[in-house]
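We modelled the chain as a single entity of 235 amino acids. Its sequence is:
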Amino acid sequence: MKKSSTEKANEELGKARLAAQQKNYKDAAKFVETAIEILKEEDNRKQLDMAKALRNEYLGMDAIKYNKALEAANYLGRSGGFYHRLGMITEFQRVFEQQAKILRVIARQLMQERRFVDAASHFEQAAMAYQRLNNKADEMDCKAKSYISRAAAEKHISGRKLYLKKAVELIEERGSEEPIIKAHLAFYNALFVEDERPKLALQYYSDALQNYQLAGSQSRIQEVKAKMEKLTKKI
């Protein structure tokens, strides 16, 4: 008996899932692509969207495998869009969680490279992904970091202070007894006032240092110590 288009497509999707289990994501995506071409003959939007979600997820996973972070984030975002349309909550959450983490890593790397505008853009995209996941804490953290990045890109003090003020307001709104959050709040407050009130900034940096030490954030500890040393020389 001749197989229907749906049966043929399901065969290809089965091969794709098996390949994905073996982490052969490129092959998995190719099998899904074949299924998509078959499904185009049918009038089944739901099944076609499901296949497109899988294809983009597999391509995203393949990009992760080869350290192509931005490419991975783009594919995972597309996959999440299809899963969302299908109402597949578990799958939707899985891919957007991965996308958000990747975007955050990219943003941090861009900050280290002093590409602050690009960093801000990626923090904003990460914040949007966390918003879709209803993860308020990480959403606000990424938004605050996007403001810090935009402040760093500003040439004028007035513009820099505007973005720093927004970052501080977000951290205050978030509120937390966690040492790392208290440290961030003190650190951003110090950045906001260090030009006009260096003594107050030193107090904030001191609070930040204490809480970064409690949190065990070694890179931040060294950064704050360097800022305190530089500021002390100015007073």
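As a brief sanity check on the tokenised model: The chain has a mean pLDDT of 89. The chain has three domains: 1-87, 89-175, 176-235.
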